[in-house]
Structures are given as structure tokens and as C-alpha cells.
Automatic annotation (TrEMBL):
Protein name per its UniProtKB record: Glycine N-acyltransferase-like protein
Family (UniProt): Belongs to the glycine N-acyltransferase family.
Keyword terms of this UniProt record: Acyltransferase, Transferase
Glycine N-acyltransferase N-terminal domain sequence ranges: 1-189
Residues of the Glycine N-acyltransferase C-terminal domain: 192-279
Record-listed E.C. numbers: 2.3.1.-
Any GO molecular function: glycine N-acyltransferase activity
Enzyme class at the top of the EC tree: transferase
UniProt keyword Acyltransferase present: yes
Keyword Mitochondrion: no
Amino acid sequence: MLVLNCSTKLLILEKMLKSHFPESLKVYGAVMNMNRGNPFQKEVVVDSWPDFKAVITRRQKEAETDNLDHYTNAYAVFYKDVTAYQRLLEEHDVINWDQVFQIQGLQSELCDVSNAVANSKQLGIKLTSFKAVQFSPHSALPDTNSLKGSSPRLTYLSVADADLLNRTWSRGGNEQCLRYIAKLISCFPSVCVRDDKGNPVSWSLTDQFATMCHGYTLPEHRRKGYSQLVALTLARKLQSRGFPCQGNVLDDNVASISLLKNVRAEFLPCRFHRLILTPAAFSG
């Protein structure tokens, strides 16, 4: 196991991961953020270098942590050889098994392998799988016709909006998520529509893996074209900074799937998998 601390090696890794799209997108997004200031205090673990067969991004050991915060305690995985990934999981000191955390990636075998190792350590496991999507430069352009006059207006989120986002996110409603959202807003691109009082009515933001997330419009403001406008504007913002425009959507989220089809987003051949793992000490 090797930790890549050298900035030159991390830049080389970023270029190498591009040749393994789309399966490497989550790790690629994390490495891009590491190479641009590393606001989430991440590091990279590989089985070998430069001919790696498995790579994991994780929180730096010295970073302040909350053992209940699976949002921040997040690992992204890409492998060329699933056996190499399993060996990394089993190796001492690669994963912190004593906290609640998540593992995510775009390769199906990671579910079985992660499950097997986690079960051997008696951790609880919650698996969620999504359709994976990517916006291309050929996606539809943002249509600002829904914004007439001085309000509503298209802008970006502020940390003061974190409480609203925490209350409206299906994954939220807790202290850890509130802190996580505030950190995302302060570190990464976001877009929102605000009403005449300056309150957000529709928004989307970017996570630590350069993935567009928590796209949401308040119920009373739906069917006005805001969701599409926000999604396309954020996609363009990410593209202008050189980031891939990726997202995830649940299979039963009919409205979001319809929106993504309307804007000509590409549904990827792989699926996005997220495992949340909980040690017995924190299950209850």
C-alpha cells in the first residue's frame, strides 16, 4: 500500500484516470479537487505505483473527523483488478473500520467485495444503487426565459442556505449533514434560483467527488423550468473549470430522469453504488 503525497504523481494519476472513464469518474473527481487546493483534505492510496491496479481516495488521517459523519468519511474506489481492491481493503490501516463511513464507485464488483470484508468485521451495510449520468458539451443550453424581470434571479448558494438544504435533502436532517452541506457550499460550485425576497427556491451543488448533487425545487415553485435551468447552468460552470459533469439518479425518480433525457444528458453503461457501513458500536 502506498499513499501518494507527491503533487507531480497526483497530476499524473489524474491524467491516467481519464483513460478509464466512466468507471473512474468518482476517483477522478476527487483527485481533481485534490490537485486544486484539496479543500476536503483527501489523500490517495494505491496498491502500487505507477502501474496501479486499485486506487482509493480517503480523508487524510490528520484531518478533524466525526465518527458518525458518513458524508465526510467517504472513500471513492476504482480498480483495474478487483482482487487488488480486496487486498487493499484487507490491508491494515487503509480503511478506518471504527467509524461510520461510505464507499462509492462505478463498478459492480465493489459491492460484493466490500460486503464480504465488512461482514467479516461485523459492520452493518446499507447499499444504494443509482443510474449514473454525465452532461456532455453537447447537452442543451440553459434557457433563462423562466427568469423575467428583476426576480426571480439566478445566482449561487451561500452557507446561510445550508439549513434549508439539510431539511429538504432525503439524505439529510441531521447535524452531520448540515456541516457537510455548509462545507460543500463553501468549497465547490453551486447554482440556485432566488425569489424576490432572496430565498432559494431551486438549487443544485457539487460534492467532494465533483458530482452534481441535491438538485431540488421547492414544491410550490415546480413546473417553471427552474430545475432544468439550474442543472444546465451548474453543468456549464463545471465544464468551464475542466471538471466532468456527472450525476446520479435513483431508478424511481421519474421526474429527474425525464429532465435528464430532455437536456440530452448521457446515461452511462455503469451504475453508481454507495455503501454506508456502520460499526456495531454505532448501530442502534
